[in-house]
Design a protein that fits this description.
The chain has 334 residues and is an alpha/beta fold. 27% of the residues lie in helices and 30% in strands. It is globular, with a radius of gyration of 21 Å.
Length: 334
């Protein structure tokens, strides 16, 4: 007798998808991960350009849920993450006010993608692969993508933004309708490098009454290089209004607003770029944890299923994996 568990396809290699894939693989499920990106991590990725590096998506994370805290403690012990004790501020119309609290903020080391890379280790990940659809084939699912494949999966877990999951779920109208309730909002992010340290009384700041909502000195985070690298993130409303603008125009506008909103005289950047996150964060999460349909073998997870934080993404993937494991607590025998 050979003990087997049903083969699983995970679509999406952000934190949710990687957590689900990792937990299932550790329980003996054959898991294949499909991701349209060049490397795993999703919005927790780190962008590099030559000697410059930026956490251009998720800036930091916190831990409130005890289940997540246990993983965070392990990551700290292994050096995958560190505390970020940044000088924080609130900026309004050029007025900078220091902000202090007792919240522990964590960052990956040497980049925010450190956690994703660890979760992805030894997994079968098909990067740069755009999944175009699902097709029922007897009691299994075929993953439709540009490269011909004969692989079949009994279970398919989707860990993509809801707008990407929705067309794939045409095979399950009930799940498709549930996913349609979630609403995501975009975010334009500018990345700037300066020849010398900018004289500001903060390493990270929230902005109000401005087209930007956040700016952070990336090199103030533990394990980063010494270049003066800044990440500037636009508000959702500004990002919607300028969604299709050219990246050069976006980066110039956000940098100018950064100087104006922080009360600093403009200085030239030696490097300036922009990245558009079309589905950056949920403005209307489902608060369902995850979605799972045992009859069809289809599941959905993501921060938009749980809550708008990295912790929410992690817990959503964990919860979906637990639902699958509960269905197959023991391997089937052939």
């Amino acid at each position: 007798m050979i003990e087997v568990r049903p083969p699983v396809a995970v679509i999406g290699a952000g934190i949710s998808g990687l957590v689900a894939a990792r937990l299932l693989a550790e329980r003996g499920f054959p898991v294949t991960v499909y991701d349209k990106g060049r490397r795993p991590g999703g919005r927790s990725n780190t962008r590099t350009d030559g000697v410059y590096a930026f956490d251009h998506g998720c800036q930091y994370f916190t831990a409130r849920d005890r289940r997540f805290q246990r993983y965070v403690e392990s990551w700290l012990e292994r050096g995958l993450i560190s505390y970020w004790d940044a000088r924080r501020a609130s900026c309004m119309r050029g007025v900078v006010s220091p902000v202090q609290d007792d919240v522990a903020r964590y960052v990956g080391v040497p980049g925010m993608n450190a956690i994703a890379m660890q979760l992805a280790k030894d997994l079968d990940i098909r990067s740069a692969t755009l999944v175009e659809g699902l097709q029922r084939d007897g009691g299994s699912w075929r993953i439709l993508h540009p490269e011909p494949s004969i692989e079949r999966y009994e279970l398919v877990l989707m860990a993509t933004p809801p707008d990407n999951a929705r067309p794939l779920l045409a095979v399950n109208p009930t799940l498709q309708e549930a996913v349609s309730e979630a609403v995501m909002q975009p975010c334009w992010t500018a990345m700037a490098v300066f020849d010398y340290d900018i004289e500001l009384p903060f390493d990270a700041a929230h902005f109000s009454t401005s087209s930007i909502v956040w700016a952070a000195r990336n090199n103030s985070k533990p394990g980063r290089g010494g270049h003066e690298c800044w990440v500037i993130q636009a508000s959702p409303s500004w990002s919607v209004e300028h969604l299709e603008d050219h990246p050069d125009a976006v980066s110039a506008a956000l940098l100018a607003e950064f100087f104006a909103a922080s009360g600093l005289n403009p200085v030239p950047a030696v490097y300036l770029a922009a990245h558009r996150w079309r589905y950056a964060s949920p403005s209307k999460p489902l608060n369902a944890g995850c979605l799972w349909d045992r009859a069809s073998g289809l599941g959905v997870c993501g921060d938009w299923c749980h809550s708008a934080r990295m912790e929410g993404a992690f817990l959503s993937g964990l919860m979906l994996a637990e639902k699958v494991i509960d269905e197959w607590p023991r391997a089937q025998r052939d």
